[in-house]
Amino acid sequence: MLDLGLSKMALIGAVALIVIGPEKLPRVARTVGSLLGRAQRYVADVKAEVNRSMELDELRKMKESVESAARDVQSSVQSTAAELEKDLGSVGTELKNLERDHAEDTSGELWRSTLDAASQVVPAYRHPGKNFRLKRGAVPRWYKTRQGGLRTHVQSGAARVARFRPKKR
What we know:
Blueprint: H1 6-20, H2 25-103, H3 108-118, H4 132-137, H5 141-147, H6 157-164
Helix pairs in contact: 2-3
């Protein structure tokens, strides 16, 4: 790169003053400065574009790795589900065989009643209804009026003090 020190900058300034002249030197310096600024902005834009493209490549690779991991997990879950389904099917056939074998036995009735009790459906949850807690926890209006706790109009603290202040005679 260019190794510009203070002495070289002073030499370049002196030569420019002699060659260009003192009248045109400020305008030329402004033009050179603006050109250098444009060049620096262009270089910064190119660097940013290269960095963005590198980040996009990294993101694509990361996306592919995540997708492959998701496919692996999905295939393992599907295979496990298929194995469980096969095992449950074999257990079901074994239960049917046992039920048929025990139907001829004298204890078949006990076995059948045990299976019937196990296969009973549990009743579904029924929501108690709208405003359940409000209805259950509400204090009756007659009790509130008896205790003096029924307020129909809400007042501020200052209004309450003024209301209950003894009247001047």
